[in-house]
Write a structure and sequence with these properties.
13 helices, DNA-binding, Rossmann fold, homodimer, about 350 residues, six-stranded parallel beta sheet
DNA sequence: ATGAAAGCGCTAACAC
DNA sequence: GTGTTAGCGCTTTCAT
C-alpha cells in the first residue's frame, strides 16, 4: 500500500505499464474506457507519480533555486514570498537557500542547486561576493539565472535592480522643494554599491541645488539599526543638527528614530527623517516613515517572471538590466512646509 | 562542454563508468592514482553530478518540504529562516511552499511535495483547514511529517507548539502582581484555537485572582493591525479605559498603539499594552513592546531537528507534542509599579 | 488502441 | 582494483 508504481497498476489490471503511463497523462492513444479504469484503480491504490523519475528523463525539474542573503530581513522575505507565489502559479517548485551574506555559503548553495538540476536560478549576491567563478560555470552550463537587487555587471545574466541614484535625487529634490536645505545623510558604507550610489545621489542633488555639502553631515557607519542609532547620537552631540536626516535604509532610520526620541527630539517637529524602505514597513514607525519605496514584491515578481520566460522561451537574455521604479511616499516623518 | 556525465569521463579515460562513479564517491575499491586522475578530469570537464539520477535509485531526495501559511508575517519568515539553516547544515534541501491560509492551496502543495518524494514535511496548517485527508495519505506513505505552530491532534505526527494558556496565565499573573486589576483583552477570534486558548488563559487568571470579568473589556475582532486599531477605538469611546491591554499578537498590539496615540494617550503612562510576540519585533514598537516571547527560531529549529531525526533514525514518532517554552519579557510598554 | 524495447544518469551487487 | 549486469520509475519511439 506504500509507494505504488505504474507497473503495480499495470499488473493489477493485466495490461502494460506503458498503457498506464499514457492513460495517466491523458495521452490520446488510450481509449476513454481504459483511461477511466486506470485512473480509478490508480486512485484506489493510492498512486502518486514519482516526479524524480519523470525529471530524470525529461531533463527538466520544474524547479527554481533561490539564493538570498538573509530571510530575517523583511525586504528579502517579501521578495521570496512573491517569487514563491509566481513560481507556484506557473507550476514550478522553489528550492530556497540562504547565504547569510557569506560568499562561501553562497557558492556552496549554487553548486548544490545546479547539482539538483534546477531549471533556473534567482540570486541576490552576498555583500562580500567578489569571485565570479561559480557564475561562469552556471553560464557554461546554460542554466538561466537572474540576479535581483545585487548583481554582477558584465555577465550574460539579466539583473533586476532598483535605480538608487535617481531615487535619491528625486526624493531629495522633493525635500528641497519643501524648503529644506539642512540635510544630513546616514549613508552606510560608501564602499558598497548601494551605499555609494545613494550617497552620490545625495551629493549631486545638493550640489545641483547649490546647497553646500557639509562633511560632518555625511555619516558613514553601516546598514543596521545600531548604526543609525550611533550616527544620530554623533550628529546630535555635535550640537549642530540638520533639519532632515536621509537614511540609507529602514533599519538605519529606525535607529535614528530611537536616538532622536531618547534625546527628547520630536519627529517631525524637531527633526525630519526619511529614507529607503517600502510601503509595508512604514506602519511600524511612529510617526510613519516617509520613504523612497522599493517594492520588494515588484522586484521578486519581475525577477521570477523574467527567469521563467528565459527558461520556457529559451530566450538567451542578452543580460538585460531592468530597473524597478521607485516611488516617493510622503508619510509623517518629514513635515511638509508647502501646502 | 555542457552537462558532462560520468560516462563521458569514462570514455575520455578509456575506463568503465562504474570506476568513475566509485572514484568520485571516494569508494575504497579504487586506487589513489586512479581516483586522482578521475577527479582531475572530472573537474577539467566541468562535471556536476546529477542528483536527480542519484535520488532516483537511492529513493532518497535529501529534501524537506515546508508548507507555511504566509511569508509576509515575520513570525513565519523567522521560522523558515531557521529551518533552512538547520536543514542546510544537515545537507538537506528545502522546498518552500506557501498556502496563503487556503486549505485548497495547502493540499495542492502537499501533494506536489510528496510527488517530489521529499524525505519529510514541515507544515503549519492554514487557518481554514479542517480536512485531514491529505495528511492521512502522507501517513500511509510513511512520509515523516512534523506540524509546527498549528497542528491536527490525534494523528501520528509530532507537533511543535507554544503552550498558549500557561503563557497567558504566567504573564497575566506578572501583570497582576504589579498591582494591575483593570485589564482588557483583544482576543482575535475565539473560534480559532489560538484565540480561544489565549482568551481562556485570560479569563482563568483573572478569575483565580478574584478580578471580576468585564465583558466590555473582552473585545474580539481579528488578528490584524486594523483589528487592534478598531478594538482600541471602541474601547476608548466607551469612556471606560482599563489600565492595561492584553493583545493576542503583535499586529493587534501595533494597531492598539496607533489608536492610543491618536487618542492622545501615552504608553505606558496612560495605558499599558502587552501581548504575544517575539524578541526581534519589540524594537519596532515605540515604546518597546512588553511581550510573551514566542521565539520563532526556537520553533523552526526544533521542528526541523525532530523531522530530520525521524527521517534518519526512522523513528516512528508516536506523535509527540512538544511545547516550546515561552518567556515573559518586560520592556517599556507596561509601567512597572513594583520595584 | 495497445505494447515491447530502449534509455534518462547513476549506483549496488556481483564477478573477474 | 576494475568492470559487467541490472535496475531505480518513468517516458519516448516504434511496432503490432
Amino acid at each position: 500500500m506504500v509507494n505504488i508504481r505504474q507497473s503495480d497498476i499495470a499488473k493489477e489490471l493485466n495490461i502494460s505499464r506503458v498503457t498506464v503511463s499514457k492513460a495517466l497523462r491523458d495521452h490520446p492513444d488510450i481509449s476513454q474506457s481504459m483511461k477511466k479504469k486506470i485512473v480509478e484503480t490508480a486512485g484506489k491504490m493510492g498512486y502518486v507519480p514519482n516526479l524524480i523519475a519523470r525529471q530524470l528523463n525529461s531533463r527538466r525539474t520544474f524547479t527554481i533555486g533561490i539564493v538570498v542573503p538573509d530571510l530575517e530581513n523583511s525586504f528579502f522575505s517579501y521578495i521570496v514570498d512573491s517569487m514563491v507565489d509566481y513560481a507556484t502559479e506557473h507550476n514550478y517548485y522553489v528550492i530556497l537557500t540562504v547565504s547569510r551574506e557569506k560568499e562561501s555559503i553562497e557558492k556552496q548553495n549554487i553548486e548544490n542547486l545546479i547539482g539538483m538540476r534546477v531549471d533556473g536560478l534567482l540570486v541576490c549576491l552576498s555583500q562580500e561576493t567578489t569571485d565570479r567563478q561559480v557564475f561562469t560555470k552556471v553560464g557554461k552550463m546554460n542554466i538561466p539565472l537572474v540576479f535581483f537587487d545585487r548583481a554582477f555587471e558584465n555577465m550574460k545574466f539579466s539583473r533586476i535592480v532598483f535605480n538608487d541614484k535617481p531615487g535619491a535625487i528625486n526624493s531629495l529634490n522633493r525635500i528641497i522643494l519643501e524648503g529644506y536645505t539642512k540635510i544630513a545623510s546616514f549613508s552606510g558604507y560608501s564602499k558598497t554599491n548601494i551605499g555609494k550610489e545613494r550617497l552620490e545621489g545625495f551629493i549631486d542633488t545638493l550640489t545641483k541645488n547649490k546647497i553646500p555639502i557639509r562633511k560632518e553631515w555625511i555619516i558613514e557607519g553601516g546598514f543596521e539599526l545600531k548604526d543609525g542609532y550611533e550616527s544620530f547620537k554623533k550628529l546630535n552631540s555635535s550640537g549642530n543638527l540638520p533639519e532632515v536626516v536621509f537614511a540609507v535604509n529602514d533599519r538605519v532610520a529606525l535607529g535614528a528614530y530611537k536616538a532622536a526620541k531618547e534625546a527628547g527630539l520630536r519627529i517631525p517637529e524637531d527633526i525630519g527623517i526619511f529614507g529607503y524602505g517600502f510601503n509595508e514597513i512604514t506602519d511600524f514607525f511612529d510617526p510613519q516613515l516617509t520613504v523612497i519605496n522599493q517594492d520588494p514584491r515588484k522586484m521578486g515578481l519581475e525577477a521570477c517572471k523574467l527567469l521563467i520566460n528565459e527558461i520556457e522561451k529559451e530566450i538567451k537574455s542578452g543580460g538585460n538590466k531592468i530597473y524597478i521604479e521607485e516611488e516617493f511616499l510622503w508619510r509623517k516623518s518629514v513635515r511638509r512646509k508647502v501646502k
